[in-house]
Each structure stands twice: as C-alpha cells, then as structure tokens.
Amino acid sequence: MTPNLPPRVTDRAFARLAEIAAATGQPKPLRVAVEGGGCSGFHYDIKLDEARPDDLVLERAGVRVVVDRVSLPFLSGATIDWSDELIGARFVIENPNASSSCGCGTSFSI
Questions:
Q1: Among 5, 11, 40, 86, which is most exposed with the fewest C-beta within 10 angstroms?
Q2: Contact 46, 30 (CB under 8 A)
Q3: Three-class SS string for the chain?
Q4: How far is it, in rounded angstroms, from Cα 83 to Cα 18?
Q5: Contact 81, 95 (CB under 8 A)
Q6: What is the domain partition of the chain in residue ranges?
Q7: CA atoms within 13 Å, Cβ hemisphere of 48
Q8: What is the CA radius of gyration of the chain?
Q9: Cβ partners under 8 Å of residue 86, min gap 6
C-alpha cells in the first residue's frame, strides 16, 4: 500500500458536495469508508454522514470529506472525484492500492 499519504479530493468533488449542501440545506460531510465484502474483497461505502472525533477531515470552503482511521490505510494516496457521465453520476475513487477492481467501481482487492 502507498505509505501514509492522505487521500486527495478533487475540485469537482468539493464543488458537487457544495451543490448537494446548498440543495438540501444540510451541509453534512461526505464519508468515504472501506469495508470488507463486495465481489473483490473490499468495497467503498460513500455516504453523507456526521464527522466523528477520530476522523481525518479534508475541508475546502466549509465543505468536508471525512475518512475513519480504519479506512485510512486503504485510501492512502487515493483520489476522491466526481464523475458525471452518460451512464450515471457518482463519486469515484482512484486508488493506487487496489490491485484489481470489478465493473461496478465500488469493489476492489489489494
């Protein structure tokens, strides 16, 4: 795994989070977590959630992305981005630690 580099959040991802906060009136952080399971061994759990005291907080202009300490090593050096394509719009993770991933884009192996 990539040694101890925090994940990076793109301008597009922060902009989309700002749009969501403005539309909902609830500026909750985006939580990016790694959990066991999925078709490749691990999967990303991405949702709006409250920050916890031990989270890593990545913030820009009042918009926050949080990562729990257990997930952090799996996301070391990763990029959190927003993708808006014909097949759908979603937050995506480009993870240098993943040795393979499945077609859904949310499951990976190390």
A1: 86
A2: yes
A3: CCCCCCCEECHHHHHHHHHHHHHHCCCCCEEEEEEECCCCCEEEEEEECCCCCCCEEEEECCEEEEECCCCHHHHCCCEEEEEEECCEEEEEEECCCCCEECCCCCEEEC
A4: 15
A5: no
A6: 8-109
A7: 12
A8: 14
A9: none
What one-letter code names the amino acid at 89?
A: A
Fold (topology level) of 8-109: Hypothetical Protein Aq_1857; Chain: A; (2.60.300)
The predicted-structure confidence for 76-105, as pLDDT tens digits, reads as follows: 999 999 998 877 889 999 988 876 555 545
pLDDT digits (tens, 9 = 90+) for 33-43: 998 876 657 88
- Residue labelled with tokens 């989270």: 55
| pTM, entire model | 0.84
Dist CA 80 CA 9 (whole Å)? 5
